[in-house]
Amino acid sequence: MTDPLCENTYRGKCGGDFLFGQWCILVVTAWNIGITMTNGAMLILFTMGLFPAALAYYQRYKSYGTGDTIIATGYLGGGSVDEYQRWLIECNDGEGMTGIFAAALMPFYGISQVWCNFLFPRKPPSAGIYPYYPSCNVRNMSVHELYCYDKVWPRDTADTFVTGLYSSVNYDPVSPTLFKCCKTPTGYKLDYNRCQWKYTHDKMGEHYDGYWITKCDTNNVMTGIGWAKSPWDDQFHYTWIQCCPVVYLPGVQVLSASQLF
Predict the structure, then answer these.
(1) Which of 3, 165, 175, 256 has a CA 20 to 30 Å removed from the CA of 33?
(2) Residue 218, SS3 per DSSP
(3) Is 47 in the same domain as 134?
(4) Under a CB-based contact definition with an 8 Å cutoff, are residues 99 and 212 in contact?
(5) Which helix (H) or strand (E) holds 97?
(6) pLDDT, tens only, 178-200
């Protein structure tokens, strides 16, 4: 059945059955109204329609009122690689990295998300100006630098924690080979006497596929990331993170990192 209104009014634009004709009238009418508007107004309407979808699709940082931020790392390879610039995968001001997660069917070949936690409430805010911490350094996992602390450079690396990851390959998930470590703010220390290792796999070597199993305990922060080649598939997997407690004890001496390694 042909819609006579559509056929007579919009000949050449609409046609077909009755339901299609009614839909077509709405579309063409809206189009005719739209083209009579100014270019500026049309641009505003177009932008308002696309912005929420684009924001939802490309949103990578999700911050919560609890002081937690979850970063989706997919396709965030590349970018700055030195300690003086902000990385694409890096925690916000006052935060430290506390957990890693790999998506289902990807047994920690890469890292799909990272968890950051606000751990330094007594730190003066940077007011959005980078760097967030005055002293940072970069660790290279490919040369077996798996911890923030380094015996060769104890003064520079003691009381440092993970704040960012870097991958030169732009995949989902990313496979970081560098991580950034920054020194705790004034008054804060890491209690190296109570550090723990959180593994990405069970005792049989099977990697976890649950959500946020490899995560530091409350008031702990990541101070290292490990990877190893699996004897089953001969591929590298991220296997553990090191977590150390954060303490605020200005003027109190805690066990130094050099006594632990």
Answers:
(1) 3
(2) coil
(3) no
(4) yes
(5) strand 95-101
(6) 999 999 999 999 999 999 999 98
